[in-house]
């Protein structure tokens, strides 16, 4: 457990909280979703470590145990923060696993920093290629009304919003697909987020277009997604990302909500570990 300085500013540094299992195994970097933290990977870290990997998780700026500055909530900065983690730990031949908004960091990282240190990538229930429904992106699953409603809900009553969001995160057809304790844990992590950071990051994942980033994915890639994901629907996101990345592998988890890495942890881990052998 350590802090890594992701940005050296004129008046202050930005430190990210990082957990690193260490060891000589090929590294796997797990990038969490909104509005959680690196702790949301608790079902994956032990399994990956048991499979012989060095596992790194970190809390995105503004979330969890990381610093919460007023600026830097855009994908260029998020990708640069990821690069700071990779360079500081001197990770090489690494696999990047981006869950939900974390998939955007994976895509943008390759555009900005290249693939010299990267072996493979995973998009897990991830937001690429482009969530917003626009004239030139009619397949985008997020329309303006829904996006505005989310933003207003977070502004009006943060705690109530996070309770409903994390409930929907793990639900299929209105029914929780996890134990209530899992939802409560996600809600606890969400409530660690800085309010300003959460709003700006919501705007980032809702409006950032990754279609020009995906051609930079030239290494082995896996797309894993629940077919009952109501938060980031498969048809408008995972399916399109798979189609955009030549040679990518696809695994659709039957009956899984957005939080597929928790609701179907055994299947998720098995598919991920099998992919890591490539």
Care to give the gist of this entry?
The chain is α/β, with parallel strands linked by helices. The protein has ten helices and ten strands.
User: How many angstroms separate the termini?
Assistant: 29 Å
Number of helices: 10
Largest sheet: 8 strands, mixed
How much of the sequence lies in strands comes to 15-25%
Give me the secondary-structure category. alpha/beta
What is the assembly state of the chains in this entry? Answer: single chain
Q: Give the neighbour order of strands across the main sheet.
A: 1-2-4-3-5-6-9-10
> Percentage of helical residues?
25-40%
Gyration radius, in Å? 17 Å
Q: Could you tell me the mean pLDDT?
A: 96
State the total count of DSSP E strands: 10
Q: What's the shape?
A: globular
Flag low-confidence runs: none
* Secondary-structure element string: EEEHEHEHEHHEEHHEHEHH
GO molecular function: hydrolase activity
Keywords: Hydrolase, Oxidoreductase, Peroxidase
Organism: Microbacterium galbum
Protein name: Alpha/beta hydrolase
Quick tags:
eight-stranded mixed beta sheet; alpha/beta; globular; two-stranded antiparallel ribbon; 37% helix; 278 residues; 19% strand
Question: Could you please describe the fold and organization of this structure?
Answer:
The protein is an alpha/beta fold and 278 residues long. The protein has 10 helices and 10 strands. The protein has helices at 45-50, 75-88, 102-113, 144-156, 158-169, 180-190, 195-207, 238-244, 260-263, 265-276; strands at residues 2-8, 13-20, 27-31, 54-58, 94-99, 118-124, 171-172, 175-176, 221-226, 249-253. The strands form 2 sheets. It has an 8-stranded mixed sheet with strand order 1-2-4-3-5-6-9-10, sandwiched between helices. Strands 7-8 form a two-stranded antiparallel ribbon. It is globular and about 45 Å long. This is Alpha/beta hydrolase. Residues 27-263 form the AB hydrolase-1 domain.
């Amino acid at each position: 457990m350590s802090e890594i300085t992701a940005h050296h500013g004129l008046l202050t540094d930005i430190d990210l909280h990082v957990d690193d299992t260490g060891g000589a195994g090929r590294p796997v970097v797990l990038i969490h979703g909104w509005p959680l933290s690196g702790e949301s990977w608790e079902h994956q870290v032990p399994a990956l470590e048991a499979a012989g990997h060095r596992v790194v998780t970190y809390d995105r700026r503004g979330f969890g145990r990381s610093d919460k500055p007023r600026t830097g909530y855009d994908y260029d900065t998020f990708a640069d923060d990821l690069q700071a983690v990779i360079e500081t730990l001197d990770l090489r031949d690494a696999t990047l696993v981006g869950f939900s908004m974390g998939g955007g960091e994976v895509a943008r990282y390759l555009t900005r920093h290249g693939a010299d240190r990267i072996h493979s990538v995973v998009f897990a229930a991830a937001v690429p290629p482009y969530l917003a429904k626009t004239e030139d992106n009619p397949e985008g699953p997020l329309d303006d009304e829904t996006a505005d409603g989310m933003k207003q809900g977070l502004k009006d009553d943060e705690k109530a919003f996070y309770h409903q969001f994390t409930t929907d995160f793990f639900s299929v057809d209105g029914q929780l697909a996890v134990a209530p304790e899992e939802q409560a844990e996600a809600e606890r992590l969400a409530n660690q987020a800085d309010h300003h950071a959460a709003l700006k990051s919501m705007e980032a994942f809702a409006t950032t277009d990754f279609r020009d980033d995906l051609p930079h994915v030239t290494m082995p890639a896996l797309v894993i997604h629940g077919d009952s994901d109501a938060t980031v629907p498969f048809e408008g996101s995972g399916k399109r990302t798979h189609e955009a990345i030549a040679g990518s592998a696809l695994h659709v988890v039957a009956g899984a909500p957005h939080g597929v890495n928790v609701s179907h942890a055994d299947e998720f881990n098995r598919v991920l570990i099998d992919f890591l052998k490539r």
